[in-house]
Design goal:
- The protein is an all-alpha fold and 441 residues long.
- It contains 19 helices and two strands.
- The chain has a two-stranded antiparallel ribbon with strand order 1-2.
- A hairpin with a 5-residue loop joins strand 1 and strand 2.
- Helix 4 crosses helix 13 and helix 8 packs antiparallel against helix 16.
- The radius of gyration is 25 Å and the shape is globular.
Length: 441
Amino acid sequence: MTPPPPPIGAPALEGADGQIIAVPEAVVVPSPLERLLARGRLRATLAMLGPAFVASIAYVDPGNFATNVQGGAKYGYLLLWVVLLANLIAMLIQYLSAKLGIVSDRNLPEVVRERFPRAVTWGMWVQAEVMAMSTDIAEFLGAALGLNLLFGVPLLPAGLITGLIAFGILELQSRGVRRFEIAITALLGVIFAGFLYEALRIGPSTHDSLHGLLPGLSGAGSLYLAVGIIGATVMPHVIYLHSALTKGRMPCRNDHERGRVLRFERLDVIIALGLAGIVNMAMLAVAAKLFHTPALSGLSTIQQAHAEFGHLVGGTAALAFAVALLASGASSSSVGTYAGQVVMAGFINVRIPLVLRRAITMIPALVVLAAGMNPTNALVLSQVVLSFGIPLALVPLVMLTSRRDIMGVHVNRRPTAILAWGCAILITALNLFLIYQQFFM
């Protein structure tokens, strides 16, 4: 008996005897992205947020506290436009790093290892480790200062306690990246809340703040601070780290899905870096309102700023400042250690336990504290050292994301490439100028 023909539209094959054989339809398994989107737009968006929040901690680290307080005290609202410009540049750079991780499924150090000679890769690893330790000094000292200001703990014991706090945060990473992201985002929320309170409590001038968004400088001193703010904004370790945070986070089947993930990541960057920018602008505006006076314009240390908050506004404002500083130092120090792990594994394919790395990178900061060096001066010096490493991370990032053989259809478009190269050249030039000012003027 001849079997009935398959239903119209059903897949079919012709057998050896010429008969038509129906083939069961293949079961289409939804991709991870499709399953996530099926949960609803809001839930999908919240689930995709996170990597940029971790990276954004570098933009509100203790180094930013020092430059913003100094800028506001010396020049009032004048440099608000510099803070805004620095954050816009940071948004572009961090998005390019995230895009490299999503599209290539590798982080920046891994791509450098694949594409550059071995000697170059090892050289970049050595300098990246030096940059990581310099970063850690600033962030570690900031957290120790926060503990000292909050509880009166001497700086060396405060440094040891900071190490324990960082160990605790890093332990979350070993239990899942999502927990680590949530913890860092919560600490960013503490910093944001602290300076939102300061801004609402102190009430910086709206008129002067808007005027400060118009580009302008006032002599060589303001130029130096402007260079410091922009030049120290894009940190080399978070350029490396952001690509690692997005690598493989959401598996994609094709370029269409990668494009959808990239749209989520753009939103992630805008929100996270936007919050960091608001914190920095609020910090500078508050300092301008309180400290831009003949008596306080020379204020230069975090301890002085904390004392003046208490004297001029009250204990609650001083408490909010110290809590924000502690949250900034603890979170950015943990992120810096995690970035160091990414750098080592990516450049030379060697991995060591995060706890061991944390213990090693604590040593320079503990030496600074034990020697009794001024923490704020050491913090500023660490920012100058970091200036050397920024071009070595930034230039390869722009170069690699502009290559079609790596990025495919998601290669940088011409306007993006021109803008990215412009930012890279600007930041590199400003950092070289900052180094020249520090050592030759």
